[in-house]
Amino acid sequence: MIIEPRMRGFICTTSHPKGCEQNVKNQIDYINSKGIIEGAKKVLVIGASTGFGLASRITSAFGCNAATIGVFFEKEPSEGKTASPGWYNSAAFEDEAHKVGLYAKSINGDAFSKEIKKQTLELIKADLGQVDLVIYSLASPVRMNPETGILHRSTLKPIGDVFTNKTVDFHSGKVSEISIQPSSGDDIENTVAVMGGEDWMMWIEALKAENLLATGATTVAYSYIGPSLTEAVYRKGTIGRAKDHLEATAFAITDSLKAIDGKAYVSVNKALVTQASSAIPVIPLYISLLYKIMKEEGIHEGCIEQIQRLYQERLYTGNKVPVDEKGRIRVDDLEMRPDVQAKIAQLWAEAVTENLAELGDLEGYRKDFYNLFGFDVDGVDYKIEADEMVNIDSIA
Ligand code: NAI
Ligand code: NA
What we know:
This protein is α/β, with parallel strands linked by helices. It contains 13 helices and 13 strands. Helix 2 (51-64) packs across helix 10, helix 9 crosses helix 11 and helix 9 (283-296) packs across helix 13. The radius of gyration is 20 Å and the shape is globular. The model has no long low-confidence stretch (mean pLDDT 97). The structure holds 1,4-dihydronicotinamide adenine dinucleotide and sodium ion. Residues 81-316 form the Trans-2-enoyl-CoA reductase catalytic domain. Pathway: Lipid metabolism; fatty acid biosynthesis. It catalyses: a 2,3-saturated acyl-CoA + NAD(+) = a (2E)-enoyl-CoA + NADH + H(+); a 2,3-saturated acyl-[ACP] + NAD(+) = a (2E)-enoyl-[ACP] + NADH + H(+). Pfam families: Eno-Rase_FAD_bd (PF07055), Eno-Rase_NADH_b (PF12242), Enoyl_reductase (PF12241).
């Protein structure tokens, strides 16, 4: 069928298999152009189908020649209804991996559940024996705690005071002022329960208990800090508390992996357009200014450039992994450069509806947003009928 983007609020409800495939191929080409990374050999990626997790899977496979198992939660296609983009991404990834003889299998289901953990452990046991790298890259609005049965919902709210600032509707380009009410009730605890480190720890404990982690195994989860402009709603808001918890969990995991000389890291990554970040007020305006400046400076990166750098220049250099004063890996270094942030602060003050297309990279923002769903991808002919019924080799 002919597949077009269909928007509902901030979300696109359709996705294009050919566009998703092209996105994956472009990322693979980028990794191939950068050469071999002596690193991981058997990798589990939790949250492997989009964003940073997909980039991690691609870098592991095509950069390190690693076998990969990917866990994700995606909607499969049905006749006349497209799958979610992560489904098509994973189908394309497996195809490309299998073409060059790389092991790649996927598990589609709720990574927070005991069942999906059990299924994953059994697959590792049967096919890989052990893994030497575990990437934890989940982004979810809800989590059912498998021990208590409680369904937690995360929020994106400031803590303490109402936060008022500028924001942009990136579809219309309209800049307006927005006020976000502070958290109340169990908002903080719930957000920590969803996006904090508890589930990461559960995964590692489960893998360890079954002796599925190789000696010297590494595990990495992703975090964000960002500038003072977005601090009230991000790093000092409810989601920031969850990231604090995630970062603290890295130390707890490293302690629990002493016997096998394992290490857990949090990598602080750059702000990028994803489904999740588009839904956070204020952030899209920040990202559109950030993109503009980083592109002008020739230092713009997407997920794949970020993760390639994480592997080649941080995790697998052959030397000690460089970390900041809080033990975190930083690949947000270019975003946080003082000259970049100073320019954003200046543009932020000036930005209004009439000049934002000029001051910021609204067009780049929109393109990246549509690209997430496989639309507006260069080289794809959208006038040609596309088959929505795409299988993932290892699942179908
Ligand atoms: P994303 O939405 O692109 O990817 C999320 C992944 O988690 C997908 O593979 C999805 O299928 C999977 N997933 C969600 N719920 C699941 C569940 N219940 N069971 C199994 N899989 C599930 O998100 P993105 O942006 O790549 O985020 C990954 C991590 O990177 C998050 O911790 C996020 O906070 C962090 N990060 C994001 C930044 C950004 O600007 N987007 C910046 C820095 C860090
Ligand atoms: Na991801």
